[in-house]
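Exercise 7 asks you to align residues with tokens for two separate proteins.
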Amino acid sequence: MKFNFVKAIRKSILLSVLSAITAVNVFAEKTNIDGLFRFKLENGLELYVAENHSVPLVYIELAVRTGAINQTKETAGLFHLYEHMMFKGNALYKDAASVTKALADLGVTSHNGTTSTDCVNYFFTIPSAKLEEGLAFWNAAVRTLSITEKEFESEKKVVLSEIQGDQANPSYVLHYFSNLLLFPDDPCKTDPRGSFDVVGNATVAQMRNIQKEFYIPCNSAIFVGGDVNPDETYELVNKIYGTWKNTPGVVSQKVVSASGNQPSLNPLSETKFLVMPFDRIAPDMAQIEISWRGPDMDYNYEDVVNAVYLDYVTGKPDSLLKTKLCEKSEYKIPDPNYVGTYTSFGRKNSTVGCYVLLKDPSDNLAGRAKDISSYIQNILYPETASDKKAFSSKNVKKFKTAQDDSFIKTSETAEGIVTLARHCWIDGEMEYFLGNRKSSSIKQSKVQKYVKDYLESRNALVKVIVNPSVYQKTRKEFLDAGYYEVKKNEEVWWQREKFAVDVNSFPNDSDFIVESNIYVPEKKDAEKNEIEQKRNVEVVELKNGIKVYVQHTNSKVNALAIGCMGGYEKYPPELSGLEGNLFDVMSSSSKKYSMETRNQMQYENGVSIDKYCRTLGSVLYMYGMEKYFDRMMDVFVDGFLYPEFAENVMENIFDGNEQRVQNILNSPEALLQWTIGNDVFNNHPYKTVGGVTPDSVKNITVEKMKDVHEQIIGGGDFFIVAIGTVKTKKLVKTLNKTIGNLEFDSARKHVMQNIPPVKIEKKKPMILTHPSAAGTAYCARVFASPVVNGEDTIPAFLAGEIYSDILYNVVREHYGICYTPYSSVITSKAPVSQDYLYKVSDYKNAGKAVKEAMGYMSRGVTVEKSNEDGSYVFSTVAENLESYRSKWLNSKYGNSKTTSGQMFRMISDIMYHEDMDYDLKEVELIKKITAEDIVRVFNKYWVEGNGNWYAVTFPGNEKNLILE
């Protein structure tokens, strides 16, 4: 699509480096995107650098143009397995534990790798002072991957557990069954997780062949965003990666894809109807999804542009498609919020479609689904494409403005810019993205042709999702109507005879030679990042005393929030979710602006109004482009003051409540957390939670919401936060006309409760079962942790970070117990924290491994790595403390990169600490924390305090799961 952005302007450069820059500029390419620079090394490696000095951090990403798209049935899942092995050691960091240690030393707040259909990428954020070390880290990983048989076999177990877990999830089952129909010849090219048989029998030689063919510079790119100089970054990348060689005879996948065969755009011989009983959908609702093969980025880019515009037009709250569907009373679609459209584009695996949520599924659902799909395909899409109003110059201009606004919001951080650049690089869209090549303009005739070619004349895949209790009564109706029932244990593509593989034919030898010499970064004294101690904040009051905090920034994105003290600690457990539902109404409808009007205004202005609820308070906030803030201000304030409890608004909210309850009862992770809360906080005020529960859902009423609203407005126990290019006097003047006129009754002001600490009595593990946990288990050890603002709070956070790495090295790396273990520290007036094991595969040794890891941490010992003989290499908490301090500080920087992040940070400081700059004081506090403090706190809460295990696993596995 067309992007019109201001040309980039380089910042001034110091004279002392001008001579070096002159040489670099030969390789640099200016882009039309402010702050983004493109370079290309002689070996074909591309580099994109986004310059943004707002915080002293840098995001580094290595992307490879490969993924499921390059899989065959014999290699399905190996790209994902290879991604996992990238963290297992290399010439610079010999093994997985050394990699983990290096990440900690870099101050990495979070790191990951992902494998999608079209891309494999690896990324982290580090202090900008460590740019060279960060670049050298990924260089060593991509070029000198080391694979030991022990590490390889251990990681295969982890990936196999992930595949098994996905097979137990009905959403995954339906998704991959659908892809089998839409991509019948090569379903493996849409499935990054891959084949259980292929992964289970994978060889090291196969990994080396992937490295030789795909992990080469001409098929890769580096993306760097943050507090860096683009030209200096290029110099480092050229020095570090410039010696990386391409494999002779192997070219970029961008070149290969141009000659590859495109999967059929009309794979179905007739419209196919599927139905799946799904326990996470409420019994009084059903979902219909209609899918087609869409235009592929490698072959049909101009049609992608047409599809995006059609999606924009049909996605409007008042679109012809949504309006006419809701007008058909026999369809029982409550309002336009129950209708949505989507586009999912890839190089060779695009899909497009729409979905509908409807009520009363017991009433001829099979027939209604057929009628609705036919009406959409044969009437509504063609009518939309023929609607002249939809293609007026005014609407086209709005579309282009929406695209530009979306980009501005994304580019609020350098990470956002380079992430978007990576998407475009993968899809071959980069020249369009940079403005070097213009896509054709939006024309009605072209969109009409797109609708005719892709939607109207091609067979659709229609999927119906319905609650099992309803399906049991209507099953015959569906089968008689020609629907195919997708079962929970449906065969996946690789279990079918057509895609069977001979695992004995997998290669055991590869001629790939791993590089022996690799760039070693210079060891430098760490530069300490200091969080800026001064913020440009004004604190003023409205004429009735309501405080307004205004933080001035240069961002084009603004935020406005109203924080109401009290939160859900004010309510008994049977009213969990009451205040949250009230704030749902505030964000949806008001006296002057109906839900329909607000939805339309938010869609057209790119401004979102939303809420979140916590133990100590609830927040209504508005976030979006500065240029729309004035016109949306009245909408936002009117919702806070005069929420409208209209019938359609309440239907939306109550339907959402029912869906939440279904998810709690049928998602293993949600079920686990709900069970923990119920048991640990039994007879405690914090048994109440922010969202509805199975115990509270029927107790939420409009009358109770109105009572809560009167208390909030009448008590005046709230404050206002504004972030961005906000003019304080103008804001106060505007708010004084509405909120400033409120009169308050001190008797209604909420008095914060004296919350007692949680008492955890030692008991046997509580193990629940659910079919959706098939092949795995989700386990949590729960214990009381330090209260907010206590002297033990910050040492506990650091202890959790250090202990998480010990758990990883012992539980996952040494024993291969689960996919991810970690320790999560929560703070509140009565906090409980968790040691969490995600997707356990070794049931008998899970508890034993955690106990071993806990023993090391309790002595102030950290586990660096495992030796070949099974022994460990140890270090100490004291030796690693500075790295974890740095990591914690970097997370503080990360929270300040966006307008919304700064808003949430300030609200949290005010609500929990009564100090808008409390986070800055934490910086000083953390400097005083010693290793002895951390070990003392760990022993006090993790070891000496009672801790109980909770788990959800599959039926029949309860006795196999040993947690103590």
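Second protein for Exercise 7:
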Amino acid sequence: MIKTMLRGLLFVSVTAASAQSFTTETKKDANGYSYEVVKNDKTGVRVYTLKNGLKVYLAQNTDEPRIQTYIPVRTGSNNDPSDNTGLAHYLEHMVFKGTSKIGTQDWEKEKVLIAQISDLYEKHKAETDPEKKAAIYKQIDQVSLEASKLSVANEYDKLISSLGAKGTNAHTWLNETVYKNNIPANELEKWMVIEKERFSELVLRLFHTELEAVYEEFNRAQDNDGRLVNYALMDALFPLTPYGQQTTIGKSEHLKNPSMVAIHNYFNTYYVPNNMAVVLVGDLNFDKTIQMVDKYFGTFQYKELPMKKMVSEQPMTAITEREVKSPTAERLTMAWRTSGVGTKEAMLSDIASNILSNSGEVGLIDLDINQKQLALGAGAGTSIMNDYGYQSLSISVKEGQTLEEGRQLLLAEIDKLKKGQFDEWMIQAVINNMKLDRMKTFESGNGLATTLYSTFIEKRSWEEVLSEIDALSKITKADVVKFANDFYKNNYVIVYKRKGVNDKLVRVSNPAITPVNLNRDSQSDFYKDFQKLTSADLAPVFVDFKKEIQTKKVKNTNVSFVKNTTNNIASLYYIFNMGSDNNKKLSLAINMLDYLGTDKMSSEDIKKEFYKIGVTTSVSAGTDLSYVTLTGLEENLPKGIALLENLMKNVKPDQEVYNTQVETILNQRANAKKRKESISSALTNYAMYGKESRFRDILSEQELKAMNVSELTDIIKGINNYEHQIFFYGNDLDKIVKTLEKDHNLAANKAIPPAKVYPQPETKGKVYFANYDMVQAEMTRVAKGVKYNPQILGTVNVFNNYFGSGLSSIVFQEIRESKSLAYSAGAVYRTASDKDKSDYMQVSIGTQANKLPQAVDAISVLLADMPRIDRQFSNAKESSLKQIASSRIIKSNIFFTQLNLKKFGIDYDNRKDVYASIQNLTLDQTNNFFTAEVKPKKYNTAIIGKKENLDFEALKKLGDVEEVTLEEIFNY
């Protein structure tokens, strides 16, 4: 997987108080291990350095008996050889393939064949004659088939899933390759046994099939114009360094001509302990854990890293323009290059970026462009890497508005920044909100662990990261204005994303790979020995809702409360049992709150007041539930309630603002019909529900234009009169209740209007096709199942693990590992969203268009006959049990889990029933479920792709094919 991210610097504070002094202290534990802690760091992070140079970051989080693990390697695509781009990312994939012990039945025989494959790839890379090259590839395919007879596919994934691991994955980016798992705490040592072996050596097993899967990922990138814009932006910003000259996915010609020798050299050079770290955050014991890490990872040998050739970018002195074309709507991105992480320029850039656009929607761009609806959307952000970074501004234009006009809108906001035309309080508000965001991040084990691995990658100390907020707090308005005048010159890159045909798409032939053997019933000796290892038992804990949720009736409204024992961030929710099914105009009315003010305060003033106190508000209307939410420091929540209630009671209609919003909505609808993702989603919905669907039941253009905004403001003013409930997650309920009694209508008793019921028609074996210019074809097959049945929940849980979800599932193995037909493939049985609705079975795959016939056949075979592999089933069952046993429903999720269960008439933690049913589940019973609920169903198929590249004879095997128009599936 490739990591693409736009992020600011790491800002941290665990209180909203004044700046603290952070200093590093060195200590020793009872066993003599030295570690560093930072004074006043409430996260309690410990940083160890083993004798071999391995960095170890440990922190405790006891929310549940699980541990978030990351193994970051300080190398990425920037270190790819220039003639083997994409190598770091491809290597990341191969680290999942095992070693001389994991994933093999007979290593002595297998290694001979792998060596032959490596030699053939070197010949293949050097050969220039296309026919000879094809002949060599055929040899590679043949030898790979023989080698696969000795391998055990996905054995690493089977090992790791047997622990009850979740989120098993990895990503590669410019300077990093990061491997991730979330494991039960009692399985920590077994995880180390696996990972120690995994990183001890590299075996390029099942190489050519995985290479083709990576190429499918390359195809996905070609169909993602966000990636294409980013490639053009980086290329222009960084013309001399790998930051811009080497994409993480790599070049097509390099992916098709890899060198196994080069990959081994890269692994041996960079995957060394002094260039790696182990990050563990969760329910752990510090002293025992560092001993374990040393035992397993301390044996890796220190190795000097190569001297890095330093190449610097020259200062930008002119505007560089690029153009990208694709079928989607037009937008542009502008960017100025900055220096790297931790530098003063990077910090100033981030503050400036937040003054332009921020989460409170009170930046210059937010108020002058978005609030006034001068474009469909605009924003600013920073992306900071080790050596360089950039600040970017982007804008999506309206129909009839040119990109050049959008550019001028953005430059006008830059000009205001240069002139200091922003409120003085904005800088402190930005910093306070960064503190709040960091508190939220560190609340979860994964949030803290992610920050820690980033700290390692960026070569910074934990003290530097924690102290950065102090440096930011010293920045003044004068500093920002001076920075803006020095920084924003005619030295930027601008990328115009225009609507048109992308003539740079790379389309390649189907390589005709012979499916390799999976050997599902086989096991390596390592696996057999591993199964003998034991761990302490971990009993499941099921939540007692009556004990954990305090509920009392205040006048006519139930107020529920769950205590926050972690920090002083609180959330308040008004929850209405109605949504768009009850009133189609509700969502439109609620969205207008973003643009309307009162008779005494403008919308801009209201947003500024919320941002000043660090309280965020959100209002959303779902299909059956609507939420009004306030989140922030608990001490400021009463002020937030007063602000929100004043807005909702006194919202002032403005027809001109509404008319502009209608124009925006119509533009957004038009743009949705240009986006592959939107079309695919709409098409799948059409395949499931047909013409009488909730998705298609929308307000028409005529209805939108004819509406008086007063009708919408009346809905807003009246919503609190409907029966509803309130949930508070925080510390002092009494204080909040007093505020609500003062400001909120707790006597509300208006009956909820009846909801429209949408049919769930039977799926009848139809194929719906939508034409779109893309490299891949995306296919989703759906079948209506039985009505909600709580008795099958345990079976469904294990079936999904076994058959279609995860790296070791049957579908993933067959489609990707054996046949190389896709980068992603999965199948899931989705249980109903409430007790009166039906389940659905869904299978999805994205594949190169010329592989579609093979994909159709492969999916059809799997849906007709579920392979029965006892060991794999036991693995899936064990994984499901361990995941439930080690998971805890905590914090605000306690309330929302209960709220969801009420839809099914359940008033207790039903995981208890699921766990019990899984304990007794057999493969025969799971197969009976497949035979009854998956195999005999008639599947409707949704497929999107370029018409001229698809084999419609293959599609006819799935049912009658109907090409649908975008107007049919969107209903506008």
